[in-house]
Design brief:
Helix content: over 70%
Shape: flat
Number of helices: 5
Strand content: under 5%
Largest sheet: none
Length: 154
């Protein structure tokens, strides 16, 4: 078998396996998010029995924020762009700041991290990097595979 064909087919096969595994993980995340939403709804019901209990509110907010981060993570898996990654990181840092009891120094570090993420999003984000035509499996690569395939069979 021609080594050029192997150089093209093996990475293509590995890429397809990775896509399939990513879909499986996404389905598992969907199930986990669905179960978590149900749990958050049950906690909301529990909160009605003790509306003045701030510990219940803290737990509810933590779980709700975790579900939101899970949803953003799922969107990141499906979109495959840098913007999604920045959004997930923003939500994760915001959750940490809002839910956890952190020190002033930790809060400062998180605010700086959020500022850096916003700066990255505003000034360093290059939409062309997320363009599908720059994918390793773009049409140009498919044309190369077709040419290699024809070369083998001729």
């Amino acid at each position: 078998m021609d080594s050029e064909l192997l150089k093209l087919r093996i990475p293509s096969y590995i890429y397809r396996v990775a896509q399939l595994l990513e879909i499986v993980v996404s389905l598992i995340v969907i199930v986990a998010i669905t179960l978590s939403v149900w749990s958050v709804l049950l906690e909301l019901n529990i909160m009605t029995s003790g509306p003045g209990n701030t510990d219940l509110l803290q737990t509810f907010l933590a779980d709700a924020f975790t579900v939101v981060i899970g949803i953003e993570f799922l969107k990141m898996l499906s979109r495959h762009n840098m913007s999604s990654v920045v959004e997930v990181l923003l939500f994760a840092i915001a959750r940490q700041m809002v839910i956890e009891h952190t020190t002033a120094v930790e809060n400062l570090v998180m605010v700086i991290a959020i500022a850096i993420l916003f700066t990255i999003r505003k000034y360093l984000f290059i939409p062309g990097l997320d363009d599908k035509k720059y994918s390793p499996h773009s049409k140009k690569r498919a044309d190369t595979e077709d040419a290699a395939h024809e070369h083998i069979h001729s």
